[in-house]
Amino acid sequence: MEDISLLLSDIVLNEKFIYGVLSNVKKKSEATFNKVSIKPVLIKEEKKLQLTFEYEKKVIHENLDFLEGIEKIKGLLNEYFRQAMIFTVEADYHILISKKGKATILKKKPTKESIDLSHNRKKTYIIEDGEPCDFLIRLGVMNENGKVLSKKYDKFRQINRFLEMVEDVIPKIKTDKILNIVDFGCGKSYLTFALYHYLVDILKIDVNIIGLDLKHDVISFCNEVANDLNYDRLKFIHGDIKDFTELDRVDIVVTLHACDTATDAALVKAVNWEAQAILSVPCCQHELLDIIHNPIMVPMEKHGIIKEKLSSLVTDSIRANILEILGYSTQLLEFIDMEHTPKNILIRAIKIDKTNKEAVKQYLDFKKFWGIEELYIEKELIDKLNKHLDI
User: For the residues 55-64, what does the mean pLDDT come to?
Assistant: First the structure.
């Protein structure tokens, strides 16, 4: 296999590689995936090798650094496949592996033109259009061939945007034991199913996911879908966020478009669980609408539509500030508008167990500026907050 190793190192590291396909499984009785296609991609300005594993009813992507990709390809040819077609700018290579493991490399004239990745920045999604995905087909986002329906493309983009945010979170949390995850106000649960698919089918992480909602018909439908797809570590239950007692420990809390203080109820639960991560898209922040006031801000406050937006921004800023005080690294990120609301700010918080003293001063000064005395989230977390506000 030394010749293959030298060939791969040369064409990949010197960026001669265009495209490749690994095929012809050695032990078909033990096969899980049938083929692997390989191509260079540009992800966040970094060049990677994308390996696409093709199963009977799904595909899984792996984006690897060049050296990691070379080792992965070598391992697949050594243990799994008998054949490879490698297309480069200089030549086409046909690799054949005998039953005894001997490698033969046939070289031919190049048949493909190279692609300048800097001019080919087609959006790379975690779940790709054109590649069948079981839950998206079941929920009517894709057809049976994996083509995203035109009227569902916004939903498809939203799902992938959500998974990108989850992708950034996973390396920062502990995954050495089963992750307990709750999606409060899960609704039709596109993102709940996406989360399960990503964590279980793609990352192979052990999870226990619960979706909670107040609508009986929605819960019934989601449980039916989960059952049909054999998503056996996912279930949906009916109930209110405040009354949820199904789990004693939760690692990730998701809350999307929970209205007004329902978002705060979810954040309170997350903090009390000492959840490792929180992903929250608030909605309908009405609590401060008639409370916030500062004479300097009257030019904004006197316009109802402006004050409504202002109260939403102030509310989410305070929520993020409180999470920082209580030991979370917090970001406010742009999400994608939900179907029934233009709210598009996501609060992403990662537990770091470090008190942010600067956040305490910011919190007190900010409340004073807006004339805010006490919010729902403060009342619910008063004991925890007081330990830090006395610093």
Answer: 83
Q: Are strands 81-88 and 92-97 parallel, antiparallel or unpaired?
A: antiparallel
Cβ proximity of 159 and 194 under 8 Å? yes
Query: Selecting from 3.30.70.260, 3.40.1190.20, 1.10.3720.10, 3.40.50.150, what CATH number does the domain 134-389 have?
Result: 3.40.50.150
Which pair of tokens denotes residue 3? 């010749």
Does 107 or 43 have the greater pLDDT score? 107
pLDDT > 90? residue 284: no
Contact call for residues 32 and 55 (beta carbons, < 8 A) = yes
- The tens digit of pLDDT for each residue in 139-185 reads 999 999 999 998 998 899 989 999 999 998 999 999 889 999 999 98
Confidence of residue 225 (pLDDT cuts 50, 70, 90): very high
Maximum C-alpha span of the chain: 84
